[in-house]
Amino acid sequence: MAVEDLNERHPALRILEDMIRIQSVNPHFDPGGRGEGDMADYIERRCAAAGLKVTRQTVFPGRDNLIIELRVGKPDQTLLFEAHMDTVTLGAMENALEPVYRDGRLYGRGACDTKGSLAGMLYAMERCAAQPGLAGGDLVLCASVDEEHAYRGLLAFLELDIPVAGAVVGEPTELGITVANKGCVRVALTTHGKAAHSSMPAEGDSAIIQMMRVIRFIHERLEPELAARVHPLCGSPTIVVGTIRGGTQINIVPDRCVIEIDRRLIPGERPEIVEHELIERLERELASEGVKLTVERLLLDWALDTPQEAPIVQAAREAASGVGLSDRLQGVTYGCDASKLQELRGIPSIVYGPGSIAEAHTNHEWVPVSDVEQAAEFYLQLARTFGRLGAVKG
Length: 394
Ligand SMILES: [Zn+2]
What we know:
Elements (H helix, E strand, L loop, with lengths): L10 H11 L15 H13 L3 E8 L2 E8 L8 E6 L15 E3 L2 E3 L3 H20 L8 E6 L7 H8 L6 E4 L7 E5 L1 E10 L3 E2 L9 H21 L10 E9 L5 E2 L2 E10 L5 H16 L6 E9 L2 E2 L5 H12 L6 E4 L5 H8 L3 E3 L14 E3 H25 L1
Parallel strand pairs: 3-6, 3-7, 7-17, 8-16
Antiparallel strand pairs: 1-2, 2-6, 4-5, 5-18, 8-15, 9-13, 9-14, 10-12, 11-13
Helix pairs in contact: 1-3, 3-9, 7-9
The site of zinc ion has 5 residues, from helix 3.
């Protein structure tokens, strides 16, 4: 496709160009972040013009989820499209808000994470609105706020309890049908010692030395244990000590040291249980070495593990084949909104979108032009397939 010629471009690319020009940086990361307001206005305008029903749900002041519906009389076979409108900060990215085509790529903040997906989903909704006979069941698109920080947009959407039979979450999966992803447990661990003048260290108890024992245990014992366990789609669980802070002054034995740990879970692991076992293990194994620990929970997130026989997975495979794309199933290591849909509402969910997570959040964010076109056609085909597949097989 000749992307140089505006009129030749796939409609999803033109939507994506518009979206890249709209700054929607999550204000949590950046005081200059404008949030999702302008994106929501843009999407609402388009959808209203297409004759779609649009509802706003305020999550934070000036930051609304948009819920877009196409009802064709099959509410029990509703397919949910979900993608977030916020991006990470513009950072040092040059021309972050200017869509630039180069070498088969489209550059711009959010091109990959996740405006490319959202543009494709909007395209599918607009096509079905123009020709409702295309839709195999009812369609709902949730364009959500705040995914990059705390998933608050999706959580608010779930409180509405709109019946949904299956969901596709738009994130960069390189056009792989993603049925599994890792979850995580994040905790802060503090060791407690006793301060003393550094000229008399025997009077004190160094919290940094205690923490050294904790880190050694994590690195030498826990890491190899985790590496020995493998999930067929997601690989091994991992554990990373991401930060360390300890001591106040060079001539004082430190009485406090803190690390933050990021433990990634594979499907089958439950965050509460992993957290409990991790803490209990550290306490049990290290008490004899004089380690005194306290723990603060920072974040728990579920892994995604959608059964391969779920109708959404079957429909996705059929839709992918139908537009000439691979129907392979895959896992990814990063988390997104899908596991919340699955865990909190029991909605079988997949993740699918153009581009690679390796380009997300970088200062040269881009998405392959052909991925955007193909993802858009996949979403449209999924909208056609999902309700019908249930009817045929039911
Ligand atoms: Zn994302």
